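Aggregate trends can hide what the representation actually does to any particular protein. In the encoding step, the backbone of a single protein was reduced to a row of integers, each denoting a local shape. The record that follows shows the chain in one-letter code together with its fold in token form.

***
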Amino acid sequence: MTIKPLIILPDPILRQPSRPFEQVDTEVLRLADDMLETMYDAPGIGLAAVQIGVPRRLLVIDISRDDEDNKPQVFINPEIVATSDDRSVYEEGCLSIPDYYAEVERPATVTVQYIGRDGKQETVEADGLLATCLQHEIDHLNGILFIDHISRLKREMVIKKFTKAARSRVV
């Protein structure tokens, strides 16, 4: 497994919609393993393939607590097929927008269809942190960032800050 460099805002690839996989093969599974290694190293609880520069519909999640064994989950071609009317608010952060956090309101429960590591179609009904994490990562696959769910003024300030930081890294 290889730790991959993370793509950071304002890189335009983060706004690019990701393409689905036609099949689950060793290349897809190797990418998922690399993503898990990268996510654990960061450290984070979720990572979309586009965040390592691969605009494909793949995400990994592990919401286990520090005192628990890792419980990695791999979602290939995930799609939200249902959401609840109930809402929940979580403070979200993002490995592609380091050290910035904001409260985001999302549906409290989601149903997601995806392909698992074994190549079989699966469905998960999620609530709590898993529901929030799935929505956050699936947003990435659609070219949406969590800052798109906050006020325009706050979003513009974050983008301006990261654009300025990116320019200073290039020099």
About this structure: The chain has one domain: 12-170. The first helix runs from residue 26 to 41.
